[in-house]
Amino acid sequence: MSKPRILIARAIFPDIVDRLRQHFDVQDNPEDVIWSPAELAERLADKDGAFTTGSQRIDATLLAAAPRLKIVANMAVGYNNFDVDAMTAAGVQGTNTPDVLTETTADFGFALLMATARRMTESEHYLRAGNWTKWSYDMFAGSDIHGSTLGIIGMGRIGQGIARRGAFGFGMKVVYHNRSRLSPALEAECKATYVGKEELLRTADHVVLVVPYTAASHHTIGAAELAQMKPTATLINIARGGIVDDAALAVALREGRIAAAGLDVFEGEPRVHPDLLTVPNVVLTPHIASATVPTRRAMANLAADNLIAFFDGRGPLTPVNQPVSTTTAPR
Ligand code: 8YV
Question: Which of 84, 108, 210, 320 could form a disulfide with 159 if both were Cys (CB 3.0 to 4.6 A apart)?
Fold first, then answer.
């Protein structure tokens, strides 16, 4: 019997491509070319499965051009690049990579918070530019992490990881806001108190965003929310571009309406709002929160495992939908 055909849409670890070749007839993309939606559709026309990252949009138009496609395995926990309803209706399984990146991403959220509150990149740029000629009492004085109030918006696995780090590592008071409240046992485990969004914005010294991107979470933080925050507060976005109104944030940072921001994700990335590039009080990183070698390998292996398990008939390991039809006949 011939092997199922899969497309690996971006460059990934070569040994994991080799692993997939043992199970599938693979078309890969070792040059890491960014294909247009039409180029992606063309390559998926004869494929049974796809390995994607967060940057390939899987929607009804693409699915109509890929009649054999049965599964798309995303190498990311977030899957806002999937039109899940269109996939479900078309009988296409979607999978993501939860759990394997939780602690690494929570580490990074904390690192970005520390760098932002303590003005680390701003002060490094100053030093590298040769501007450090004398010490002064208020040079790059920032805000404290220990003992301060940490506000987390989005209390999934990564949010909980950040809460634990804050509460147990740094003695922070942790408040959170989420679509649904955690169980009392989980709240106790994270030492976190549920509050309304407005109270969180008003009382937190540091606000960390870890919500999935949906139409409802678009611009969770805009001009109105920034106005509710303390002028000494920091804002951290490790969730998705579009959760924050980047233009409004640049204005708030320039006008000192909040103290600083740390951003790993951007609206329309890899483009970054030009105003964010010119304000000093923002730490900018290129969507690297899950980027450690072991974690990126674990994510790629989990996406590969999903494809292998699905075509073996064992079912997907980490599904994000329940397709109406999983027949192997082309649509
Ligand atoms: C990915 C992420 O690296 O998992 C996610 O949702 O944002 C990152 O860990 C990125 O989406 C590329 O797939």
Answer: 210
